[in-house]
Amino acid sequence: MPLDTSTTYPLTRLRLDGRRWNELRLLQAQISTNPASSGSSYLSMGNTSIMCSVHGPAEGRRGDGGGGAAGSGHAVVEVDVNVAGFAGVDRKRRAGGSDRQSSRIATTLRSAFQSHLHTYLYPHSTISIHVSVLSADGSLLAAAINACTLALVDAGIPMPGLLCGCTSGMSGSASTPRDPRHDELDPLLDLSLPEEQELPSLTVATTTAVPVGENNMDDDEEAMKVCVLTMESKVHATYLETMLAVGIDGCSQIRELLEGVIKGSRG
Amino acid sequence: MSNQRQASSASQVPHLSPAELSYLYTSLSLPKNPIRPDGRSPTQFRPLSAETTILPGTNGSARIGFADGTQAIVGVKAEVEKTVLAADTLDSRSLAQHGDALNREGEQGSAAVSGQGEWVQMSIEIPGFRDDDALPVFLSEMMRESLVGSVAGGNGDAVKEMAGGLKGRLVINKRWHWRLYIDVLLLSQPLAYPLPLLSLTTHLALLSTKLPKLKSTGEEDPFFDDDWAAAEYLYPRSNISKSLSAAPSYPVRPPVTLLVISVGDNVIFDPNREEIAVADAVLAISVTRSGDSETLKLLSIRSIDPPSRLTQPGIPNSENVNMLGATAAPGEETGGQEEVEGVWRPRRGGVKRSVIARMVKTVLGKGGVGEEVLEGLEGVEVQ
């Protein structure tokens, strides 16, 4: 089914859900939603809603064959992603355990937070993160990153800065090289599911850079560091820079929102 | 996680010593007024918070959270499916063609009403368990059978609509039917046997479930009103009083499964993990309200293997090698079989009939626990 926006977007500059190109969907979040875990959060971006709970840092499981890293001086991050059967438009039956999408998200989250968190503070321990996707409407990975960040903050696990994720895409004929004569680009921020299925998109997550060495003196608070960057669709390389810039801009918008959530919950 | 995987139909056994188990058992089996670890009365439930219609992408959804942090979310999704007629149905219809017209009429009438139990699918996700592990499969089947099995009695328009129970409600016409997927998500580790939590959440989710209004009639291919505001509730409600503030009444309600344990002569509801660990018998009792009548109807009773059978026994001082010098008569053999006061023995054997009868009576009786639970659930606003 061709996306409605592909015909009307050049005329109206409004997307399917009425947003402009640089607008995020409504982001609502809450932390400490589940008293039974060390940290928990609920986050919804548009119609995507995710619950996340963190257990630990706790003593790792013994007798676990793959626990080679558990013996080292760093905590091990475990991520478990569960996309509920009722999350999508059609009810999806998964064959015994996990599907490709959720295991891919889990792997990305694990590697992102394993290197992001100050794991050296918790040797021989495990931080397990459980993500449940209650309703899926695009930007799943980005929403999961944001939900995990909030839950980890709630659990009080030290990290250099908030890790915030966002998606960006490119409408129009993004498979052909960019035409330098009419320099018109149509990047989109924070894609919903129909847009994600139709258009090339990438997920980017940034954090604030840690002041190290010579940069220590810089009071540049806007310095961002890209931590996660994934792309599953094809796009011509000339568009990549714009998409990345739009995504990083979205991340800093999301960071402000998440900071508001964290500060708001203290009051 | 590995020891959770080993947990069979009974929930995980907490690490309690025989002395602790014995203490718990004694305080729970005190005649007339048992003392529970959290100070509740025997029929008191844990406080919970509930909300419904939380997920816009489902036909019906609900969330319940206990104060201890265990939470469950249930989403119900419905799909239209073509009815594959079973072989015996075809046989009876072909037979009916040979019979007289009246007979055929009767046959078709019954075929149109009766649904199939497999149209309701239930799956339970518990963190740390695969969905084909014993616990989720057993729990979902236990809840599904009472759901499918309940058939409303009595009379009234709304009850007629539910003739044949939930199965009958899913029939659209002879060739089409609804398939109902009930997905239960337990969001935290099961701190106690999660059955009551899951059952209550499923109950609320089903009450809030809506199906699109059918526009086509008779044997046409189904065609639905695309106005969601016109959708009809799966469990019809009769709003006799038109005022918006009054809670709607449900002539037919989905069943509720309650977990009851017996310790000694006492009957205890909504047990937590420690209490289950010393139970003599664990029963899952499904009840529903039948039609217009005020009485509750018993749908099913299932016994659940109590984890107390797997516990380690305590050793009385008379048999303890370390205590040999201290005890007066070490030579006297006790055989190790009889009960010694204050020494834990794993529960063996069955449960007395009178105890089971009392458990059922406490649930079903007038002003009993079943009524109390259903009334409490009615208090939850279902939009």
Question: Can you tag this structure with a few keywords?
Answer:
heterodimer; A: 267 residues; alpha+beta; Ribosomal Protein S5, domain 2; five-stranded mixed beta sheet; 29% helix; B: 383 residues; RNase_PH (chain A); Exoribonuclease phosphorolytic domain-containing protein (chain A); ExoRNase_PH_dom2_sf (chain A); RNA binding (chain A)
Helicity level of chain A: 25-40%
CATH topology of chain A: Ribosomal Protein S5, domain 2
**Sheet with most strands of chain A:** 5 strands, mixed
Shape of chain B: elongated
Compute the separation of the termini of chain A in Å.
Answer: 48 Å
Q: How do the helices and strands follow one another from N- to C-terminus of chain A?
A: HEEEEHEHEEHEEH
Largest sheet geometry of chain B? 5 strands, mixed
Average the pLDDT over all residues of chain B and give the rounded result: 76
Poorly predicted ranges of chain B: 1-11, 90-112, 240-246, 330-335
Low-confidence stretches of chain A: none
CATH superfamily of the largest domain in chain B: GHMP Kinase, N-terminal domain
Write out the strand line-up for the largest beta sheet of chain A, numbering strands in chain order.
1-2-3-5-4
Organism (chain A): Penicillium solitum
Protein name (chain A): Exoribonuclease phosphorolytic domain-containing protein
InterPro entries (chain A): ExoRNase_PH_dom1, ExoRNase_PH_dom2_sf, PNPase/RNase_PH_dom_sf, Ribosomal_Su5_D2-typ_SF, RNase_PH
Family (chain A): Belongs to the RNase PH family.
Kindly describe this structure:
- In chain A, the strands form 2 sheets. Chain A has a 5-stranded mixed sheet with strand order 1-2-3-5-4, with helices on one face.
- In chain A, strand 1 and strand 2 (39-45) form a beta hairpin.
- With 267 residues, chain A is α+β, with helices and mostly antiparallel strands.
- Chain A has helices at residues 4-12, 100-116, 140-155, 193-198, 237-266; strands at residues 27-31, 39-45, 48-59, 76-83, 125-135, 164-170, 187-189, 201-208, 224-231.
- Chain B has 383 residues and is of the alpha+beta class.
- Chain B folds into 2 domains: 19-47 and 255-322 and 341-378, no CATH class; 53-208, GHMP Kinase, N-terminal domain (Ribosomal Protein S5, domain 2), CATH 3.30.230.
- Chain B has 11 helices and 11 strands.
- In chain B, a hairpin with a 2-residue loop joins strand 8 and strand 9.
- In chain B, helix 3 (87-98) runs antiparallel to helix 4.
- Classes of the chains: A alpha+beta (267), B alpha+beta (383).
- The interface between A and B is medium-sized, with 29 and 31 residues.
